[in-house]
Amino acid sequence: MKSLVRGLAGAAVLAGIAVGLEAAEPAYTIAVIPKGTTHEFWKSINAGAFKARDELAARGLQVDVIWKGPLREDDRDQQIQVVENFMTRQVSGIVLAPLDEQALVRPVANAVQAGVPVVIIDSDLKSDKYVSFVATDNYKGGELAGQRLAELLGDKGNVILLRYAVGSASTELREAGFLNTLKKYPGIKIISSDVYAGATRETAYQASQNLLNRFGREVDGIFAPNEPASIAMTKALRDIGKAGGKVKMVGFDAGTQEVIDLRNGDVQGLVVQNPVRMGYLGVMTMIEHLRGKPVPRRIDTGVTLVTRENMDQPEIKELLHPPLDQYLK
Question: Is the domain of 225 the same as that of 212?
Answer without folding.
Answer: yes
